[in-house]
Specification:
Structural class: alpha/beta
Family: Belongs to the SHMT family.
Bound molecules: pyridoxal-5'-phosphate
Pathway: One-carbon metabolism; tetrahydrofolate interconversion
Distance between the termini: 48 Å
CATH architecture of the largest domain: 3-Layer(aba) Sandwich
CATH topology of the largest domain: Aspartate Aminotransferase, domain 2
Cofactor: pyridoxal 5'-phosphate
Radius of gyration: 23 Å
Shape: globular
EC number: 2.1.2.1
GO molecular function, one term: glycine hydroxymethyltransferase activity
Number of domains: 2
CATH superfamily of the largest domain: Type I PLP-dependent aspartate aminotransferase-like (Major domain)
Helix content: 40-55%
């Protein structure tokens, strides 16, 4: 045992100071954000609340280490423990998705979902090759080839030729027939499935046939649903896809990062994906994050996680039922996963207006395009997710109350719209921030939301009485 070494009293003293002492400014922001998360409702479908153990790994001393390369083949020394960690993470990733290590491999180094997707494209196709992904306004993600009439928006449309597929505006469901027809004309090298705002499951067998018809690769970006896939609450993309990417911080409930799974038995994908991640697209892996992923994957393989994922779906369905009961329209008439796309157009509201009132009452969600929207600038709906609420240990009866809060948001919005005297967003905000009836209702709802939320524990905070209160 070594005896305690005195803390130096020189230029290195700051290396030992607690953040609350050394940087109260940043510390207060962390405390405020903790209070915001504790006292508000988190309905953003791409977010979740990770565990204490994941945060401990993520905030660990592993952040100090460089480890370019792969386990056993590094460009830096001192990686004996990092090698074990990365191998363990790879093992756990395959196990969490029930994959045979002889058939599937995984790269656990991507910094995020976007970089995982770009690295996967880099591995699979050449610059300016053709890709087809679900269009952004139809529920796809930016990184699946998004562009507008005026601009190529993401690297996926700057470096590749992209043509989106769409949902049927009448049903909100993916129009696989139109996709097949357009694929025949466009002849993609890569078909991408997966989305950010699609409330239904994916027909991977059908997508495989479409890709095969063109000799194209099929890649799934299961970022949103990977926790549900791990728990067998959604179809598995692994049976039909060549490559599967995911973020690790959505339904999977880990730290912010990405993973790329690849078939080992096809076209040398293993070395192509690994080389695409490093050195093509990234430098040194974030080993602290990999440790967080590793812990999250252990959790995702637990029976308790299966219960969690089941409850995520049950909670989304329970919220949908309450919204239906109030006569609202939901895209695809409901949900099969963790998210709901709420079409506000029939009640004469926009996603932006609901988002504004929600923000004012501590409910966090986001405006979202719904099928058939004519203006990308004025989305006609909002997206609601149940993952974070379920991590706060809410069950059906609790989230039904959340849906009732959302119903109150609509009523306040209609009142504010009346008081505004115009359809302009600014007049609307002025109305509910003013002194009229809508402002009074906002204050009441904000208080009710807070009193409701603080009854539920916040993941990672063992003693909620230590949470500092603001506002
Ligand atoms: N892929 C999908 C389907 C997503 O929804 C997202 C983010 O929301 C990403 C990729 C990007 O992930 P990140 O923000 O980690 O880059």
């Amino acid at each position: 045992m070594s005896s305690s070494i005195p803390i130096p009293n020189d230029f290195n003293k700051m290396l030992y100071e607690d953040i609350s002492v050394y940087d109260p400014e940043v510390n207060e922001l962390i405390e405020k954000e903790t209070w915001r998360q504790f006292s508000g409702l988190e309905l953003i479908a791409s977010e979740n609340l990770t565990s204490l153990a994941v945060m401990q790994a993520n905030g660990s001393i592993l952040t100090n280490k460089y480890s370019e390369g792969l386990p056993g083949a590094r460009y830096y020394g001192g990686n004996e423990h990092i090698d074990v960690l990365e191998n363990l993470t790879r093992e756990r990733a395959l196990k969490a998705f029930n994959l045979d290590p002889k058939v599937w491999g995984v790269n656990v180094q991507p910094y995020s979902g976007s970089t995982a997707n770009f690295a996967a494209f880099t591995a699979l196709i050449q610059p300016q090759d053709r890709i087809m992904g679900l269009g952004l306004p139809d529920g796809g993600h930016l990184t699946h080839g998004y562009y507008t009439a005026k601009k190529k928006i993401t690297a996926s449309s700057i470096y590749f030729q992209s043509f989106p597929y769409r949902v049927d505006p009448a049903t909100g469901l993916i129009d696989y027939e139109q996709l097949a027809t357009n694929a025949n004309l466009f002849k993609p090298r890569l078909v991408v499935c997966g989305g950010s705002a699609y409330p239904r499951d994916w027909e991977y067998e059908r997508l495989r046939k479409i890709a095969d018809g063109q000799g194209a690769y099929l890649m799934s970006d299961m970022a949103h649903i990977s926790g549900l896939v791990a728990a067998a609450e959604q179809n598995s993309p692994f049976e039909y896809c060549d490559v599967v990417t995911t973020t690790t911080h959505k339904t999977l409930r880990g730290p912010r990062a990405g993973l790329i799974f690849f078939r080992k038995d096809k076209d040398d994908l293993e070395s192509r994906v690994n080389a695409a991640v490093f050195p093509a697209c990234q430098g040194g892996p974030h080993n602290n994050t990999i440790a967080g992923i590793c812990v999250a994957l252990k959790q995702a393989a637990e029976p308790a996680f299966k219960d969690y994922a089941k409850q995520v779906r049950a909670n989304a369905a329970a919220m949908a039922n309450v919204l239906f009961k109030h006569g609202y329209r939901l895209q695809t008439d409901g949900t099969a996963n963790h998210l709901i796309l709420w079409d506000l157009r029939p009640i004469g509201l926009t996603g932006s207006k609901i988002e504004k009132i929600c923000d004012a009452v501590h409910i966090t969600l986001n405006k979202n395009a719904v099928a058939g929207d004519t203006s990308a600038l004025v989305p006609g709906g909002v997206r609601i997710g149940s993952s974070a609420l379920t991590s706060r240990s809410m069950f059906e009866k609790d989230v039904e109350q959340v849906a009732e809060f959302l119903h109150r948001v609509v009523q306040i919005s209609l009142q504010a719209q009346k008081e505004a005297g115009s359809k302009k967003l600014k007049d609307f905000v002025d109305a509910f921030e003013g002194t009229g009836e809508s402002a009074k209702l906002v204050k009441e709802l904000k208080e009710d939301v807070k009193n409701f939320c603080i009854k539920f524990p916040l993941p990672s905070v063992v003693d909620s009485s230590t949470i500092k209160q603001f506002d």
